Amino acid sequence: MKKKTLKKYKVEYKQTETFIVDVYAINQKEAEKLASKRFDAGDYQETGDCEVELNGVYDVTNTDDPFNP
Description:
Order of helices and strands: EHE
Structural class: alpha+beta
Low-confidence stretches: none
Distance between the termini: 27 Å
Strand content: 35-45%
Oligomer: single chain
Mean pLDDT: 93
Radius of gyration: 22 Å
């Protein structure tokens, strides 16, 4: 019986999280600008919603790619 050879694969996942920033503003453009500043400062709420999806599977068997199973 022939022994099966295992290949090396990297499996990539993409995770998307949802955040909320509350601001007072005159219009939508100003709201986006103010929210961006507050978000960068860490002033936001996490909704707890998180989506994870398979983003790609790559065969790295014959490459120099670092591999840490």
